[in-house]
Design goal:
Number of helices: 12
Number of domains: 1
Order of helices and strands: HHHEHEHEEHEHHHEHEHEHE
Bound molecules: S-adenosylmethionine
CATH superfamily: Vaccinia Virus protein VP39
Distance between the termini: 28 Å
Strand order of the largest sheet: 3-2-1-4-5-9-6
CATH architecture: 3-Layer(aba) Sandwich
Shape: globular
Number of strands: 9
CATH class: Alpha Beta
Length: 303
C-alpha cells in the first residue's frame, strides 16, 4: 500500500529532528574506545533480549560478506556487523544519520575497512541487481511511504540465495490494539484524523520538545508480512518486544519502578541515546505472543 500523501521530506524532517535530539550529545563526544565498549554493550543487550541483530543475523558468518543496512539511524547495528567483519553499506534517507553512521566507521578505522554510509532511499536503492549477501533493516520500512516497493528493492539487490533480515511492526500485538488503537486512537480521537493516525500517535522519545510529527507508521499481521515477502522463500516470522512502559500515561510510573527493580543496560546508549531499562521476565515472555516487533528472515531463491 503506497501513501502518496506522505513526502520523503516529511520523513527526513521527522527522523532528523528526533534523532538529532536523541544523539547529539552522545555522538558529539564519542571516542574510539567508548565506541568499541558501546558496541560490546550493544551486543550484550541484544543477546539478553534475543534480538534480531544477534539471532536472525548470522554474526559468526559475516566475515567478508557484503551487507546492506537500510536506515541505520545511529549506526550502532552497522558498527556491530562491521566488528564481525561484514563489509557494510549503510543507507539512510536522512543525511545526518548517514553522517553519524560514517563517523562510527571512521572511528573504527581498520576494524571497519571497506565500510561506507550514504544518504539514499529504500524505495530507489542505487545498487545493481544481485549485489548483497544480506540486507538488514530494523524498524525502517514501515516508515517509508511505499513499503511494498522497498521490500521489492531488498529482493532486487540481494544475490540469489541471499538473506533478508527485517524488523517490521506487528499489528497482532498488545501495543497496536490496546495502547495505540484503543488508548491513543479512540480515546484521544487521533484515529479520526486520517489514514496516518498511527504515525501521529507515536510517542516522541526525543530530549527536546517535539516540533514535527511522524508522517507514517504501518504495522502488519503475519499474513501481511507473508504477502510483502511473496517473492522470497524460507520466510520465518518471530514475534518479540513487549513493554509495559509503552502503556500511555501509566507506563511512565511503571518505568520508574522497573528501572529501580531491574536496572538499566548501557547497550541502549549507542542506539537509543540512553541506557535501556531492562525488561521484566514477564515482559520477555509476553513478547513472544503479543510483542510489537516481527523479526523476519527470508531468502531470495537461488537462480
Ligand atoms: C526508527 S529509525 C530506525 C533506526 C535504526 N535502524 C535502529 O534500529 O535504531 C528509522 C530510520 O529509517 C530512516 N528511513 C526512513 N525512511 C527511509 C527510507 N525510505 N530509506 C532509507 N532510510 C529511511 C530514518 O531516517 C531513520 O534513520
Amino acid at each position: 500500500m503506497t501513501n502518496k500523501n506522505v513526502s520523503k521530506r516529511e520523513v527526513q524532517d521527522f527522523w532528523g529532528s528526533l534523532y538529532d535530539s536523541l544523539y547529539d550529545d552522545v555522538d558529539g563526544q564519542l571516542t574510539r574506545d567508548q565506541l568499541f565498549k558501546g558496541i560490546d554493550a550493544l551486543e550484550d543487550m541484544f543477546r539478553l533480549r534475543s534480538y534480531m541483530a544477534v539471532e536472525e543475523m548470522p554474526l559468526n558468518r559475516l566475515q567478508g560478506k557484503k551487507v546492506l543496512e537500510i536506515g541505520p539511524g545511529a549506526g550502532g547495528h552497522s558498527a556491530l556487523f562491521a566488528k564481525y567483519g561484514a563489509i557494510m553499506v549503510s543507507a539512510d534517507l536522512t543525511k545526518s544519520r548517514a553522517l553519524a553512521t560514517q563517523a562510527k566507521f571512521d572511528l573504527m578505522a581498520d576494524a571497519a575497512e571497506g565500510c561506507q554510509a550514504m544518504q539514499s532511499d529504500a524505495e530507489n536503492l542505487p545498487f545493481a541487481d544481485n549485489s548483497f549477501d544480506i540486507v538488514y533493516s530494523n524498524g525502517v520500512l514501515h516508515h517509508t511511504p511505499d513499503t511494498e516497493r522497498s521490500i521489492d528493492e531488498v529482493y532486487r539487490v540481494l544475490k540469489p540465495g541471499g538473506q533478508a533480515v527485517i524488523m517490521l511492526y506487528c499489528k497482532s500485538s498488545w501495543h497496536y490494539w490496546i495502547n495505540m488503537f484503543l488508548g491513543v486512537g479512540l480515546l484521544t480521537g487521533k484515529i479520526f484524523t486520517g489514514p496516518n493516525w498511527l504515525g501521529r500517535a507515536t510517542e516522541w522519545g526525543g530530549k527536546n520538545d517535539q516540533t514535527v510529527t511522524n508522517p507514517i507508521t504501518r504495522c502488519y499481521t503475519a499474513g501481511g508480512c507473508r504477502r510483502l515477502f511473496k517473492h522470497f522463500e524460507g520466510v520465518s516470522l518471530r514475534k518479540s518486544e513487549f513493554y509495559i512502559y509503552l502503556i500511555p500515561k501509566l507506563g511512565r510510573l511503571y518505568r520508574r519502578w522497573q528501572t529501580k527493580r531491574y536496572g538499566t543496560h548501557p547497550g541502549g546508549i549507542l542506539v537509543y541515546g540512553e541506557p535501556w531499562p531492562i525488561s521484566s521476565p514477564l515482559e520477555f515472555w509476553l513478547g513472544k505472543y503479543i510483542g510489537w516487533d516481527w523479526f523476519i528472515s527470508a531468502r531470495k531463491p537461488k537462480a
